[in-house]
Queue: 2 jobs
Job 1
Amino acid sequence: MGGNVKRNGKLINISNTCTIDYYLLAFWYLSKIKKIFYQNETNTQKVQIINEILISIENLNWERARELWTFEINNFNLEENFNSISLFGSEYEKFFQHISIFQRYNLIQRCKKTCIQNNKLIRDDSDNLFFKKINNRVVIYTGYNDKCHICKINKNPRIKLKDNPDFLIIQSINSNIYLNELPKQFRIGKNIFPFLCATIHRRNHFIGIFEVNEELFVIDDLDQSMTPLPSYDKNKPSHFYRYKTTLSLYFLI
Ligand SMILES: [Zn+2]
């Protein structure tokens, strides 16, 4: 999907926007459920632009929304005689890395109760969170895997979220995580995060899966379609369950 925008008097085509469309739509949808991107001191300039993007989507002006994302957030440079921009690539590069500052957390050591390292800060200001399949279950993974250097015990470190994030975007760390395996919600500390949407990757194209009123829908930005996702049938799963998930968005109730 894509479209033409006017920038500095020049007509520019922005294409392959499936790396950004679903999560922009997700932000808009989330803004209907709760207040997001307000009172956020993390990056006021970015918050302002994102709010302008949400207003553009509300007004069904996707061209303007994509233009703002491409030039003001993604910081694409327009060179001379350059009249087309492709957002082809990874969702991490084109989308997630630009908003990861809104989901920062600290990582706290969990080892032997009596160890002096227990409950110590081991990593400051992280933002990447992953889904990883361990013993056939998909769990939150921080990428941190070291043993305590004193007691040699290795427990999953505790995630301590900063600034009560409105949402968390989780990356599937391996290509073996499928829609039916994603948790419906997860808890971090006292906070519960239910599922809002995920993306799956099929033939160089991303497809969105959104939960709306407790039902799942397939959204494709190519034809702007929204169709119910067939429920998971172990013996004969619909093909959507065979493509790997890439990112998933959960929100703070
Ligand atoms: Zn220890």
Note: The CA atoms of residues 56 and 62 lie 7 Å apart.
Job 2
Amino acid sequence: MPHKIAQIRLVSSHPEVYEPCDDSFALVDALLADRKNLLGHRPHVCLEIGSGSGYVITSLALLLGEGECDSYFVATDINPHALKVTTETLNAHGVHAELINTNIASGLEARLAGLVDVMVVNPPYVPTPEEEVGCEGITSAWAGGENGRTVIDKILPVADKLLSDKGWLYMVTLTANDPSGLCIEMKKKGYESRIVLQRSTEEESLHIIKFWRDPEALLEANEAKMSNKGGSGNGIGSLLSQLSHMSFWRNDK
Ligand SMILES: C[S@@+](CC[C@H](N)C(=O)[O-])C[C@H]1O[C@@H](n2cnc3c(N)ncnc32)[C@H](O)[C@@H]1O
């Protein structure tokens, strides 16, 4: 039996809102392919940044609803028309999400820090002149600036703040965005990653990357940070020696 995802005929539209396209379908297909893991994950809070038509957040809500996960859904978009269209799409499928008109997740950090178990993002990733980034209306759906990375590079640190210890991030990227470079960047923040779906269309080569926090990667990242700060040794030894110096110094006071 096919699993429930949003039905295209029930997805609402507006001339200024991005319609579900190859990238949206690839992201939902990646979620479907990871369905068993997602159901086992039992996420409490799920967040989509840039919901557009609502096709992805609605599909995620339907998919997790099948497993009777008691998840809370939040979606943001910088384009106010997108929130109206997302509301209509969610309602047409009988599911609910809290919708917020904001830049990435601005204003949500205090409330959601460390709480998001699943984050999904199909960002504006097309390489464009920098002035097009953040333009009003439909242009904001694709304009990604230099190498298509301007918005992506702002989203990743926000994701790092909002994701819970068991949090997963699924993100759409293009070859031009340098997906393996993004994985290396996230490794420095303590994340492992895997390209869970790769799809070439006539126009682009899409990669869906899944990121998750990994204790070993975090330890390596912390070690690298400590040795960059010019610590006396390297690795955990350096960390321990710095800690003992700190407590010695405190006792001295
Ligand atoms: C490629 S579309 C994806 C839409 C939908 N998620 C999908 O997959 O069909 C990117 C979406 O991100 C929104 N967006 C662009 N920049 C944003 C920002 N800084 N903060 C929040 N949303 C943004 C756009 O308005 C657009 O709806």
Note: Residues 18, 20, 24, 27, 49-53, 55-56, 76-79, 82, 103-104, 122, 124, 140-142, 151 surround S-adenosylmethionine (CB under 6 Å).
